[in-house]
Amino acid sequence: MKKHLLSINDLTAADALEILNTARELAKISDGPVKKLPTLRGRTVVNLFFEDSTRTRISFESAAKRLSADVINFSAKGSSVSKGESLKDTAQTLQAMGADAVVIRHGASGAAQRLADSGWISASVINAGDGTHEHPTQALLDAYTIRSRFPEFRESFDGLKVGIVGDILHSRVARSNVLLLTKLGAHVTLIAPPTLIPVGVTDWKVDVSYNLDSIINSVDVLMVLRVQSERMADSFFPSEREYSRGYGLDLARLNSLKENAIVMHPGPMNRGLEISAESADSHKSVVLAQVSNGVLVRMAVLYQLLGGAALAGEVSV
Q: Quick check: is 317 in a domain?
């Protein structure tokens, strides 16, 4: 595995499977009476968040602490960043503090790459979401969750059918999931109104549908995306009611899914818009499992980036 995790493109299929397998072994430890490993004792992980986050930030914090790392949470709000400090100055401050890994979330696409390539910092950089570009650890935890529910796809996703419905245009989660799921062999269909399908999607190695009802009974996994109103400067659909009617997962559509199909959502959910309360809380929903699995997968990523060969034998994969 490379020094940084900025994009799913940084991983081969074998790299991704190694992370998922490591997470599976770490799950066995987490289920035991002692949930912590001494693996990263003496290391410092900084959560550098320029955008609001609850699940991702807490997940990375929990993952680092379970590996015995020291954690510094840095929020742009109330910090020197809000007073005009540049990314360079912030990075050099973290370097002076001895950061070994920096987990960055930023509103600008490419910010994580900029930090990694800048030479301002020697730490490993993990992209926790940059603009509308990518969110690689979310895709990894989604793949881990899928494998947990479909043991037959443990080594390959060949034959798995995944539908991703919603605001594809603004979704870094969709981009990372498309890259990872297709890399592992899954067949992916994007479902959205034409206004929420990105330009250049023909290069994504996916199918595109504008009709959710036409494909919902054929998928094994339905990944529902949040409508990101905060990123929409224009109107991309007539009304929320119209969007929900055409692309929301309601009870009728939930009942149209295969018996063993699962429903995923990266959160936070807009209940009543892209997903109904009944769907979010149904037995097909794995939303809470995604949250739990996020800690394990992020532990595995930190383990692989900061531990390396010196940790061989501590966790058997």
A: no
Domain range for 224 is 136-286
Structure tokens that stand for 101 in this block: 């890994």
Do the domain assignments include residue 316?
Answer: no
Same domain, residue pair 190 and 236? yes
Omega prior to 268 cis, within 30 of 0: yes
- Confidence (pTM): 0.93
Tell me: do 122 and 181 sit in the same domain.
no
Residues with catalytic annotation?
A: 55-56, 83, 105, 135
Same domain, 163 and 271: yes
Q: What SS3 string covers 281-310?
A: CCCCECHHHHHHHHHHHHHHHHHHHHHHHH
One pLDDT digit (tens) per residue for the chain, 317 residues? 889 999 999 999 999 999 999 999 999 887 777 778 999 999 999 999 998 888 999 999 999 999 999 999 987 765 555 545 688 888 888 889 999 999 999 999 999 999 999 999 999 999 999 999 999 999 999 999 999 999 999 999 999 999 999 999 999 999 999 999 999 999 999 999 999 999 999 899 999 999 999 999 999 999 999 987 654 445 666 588 899 999 999 999 999 999 999 999 999 999 999 999 999 999 999 999 999 999 999 999 999 999 854 444 555 44
DSSP code for 271: B
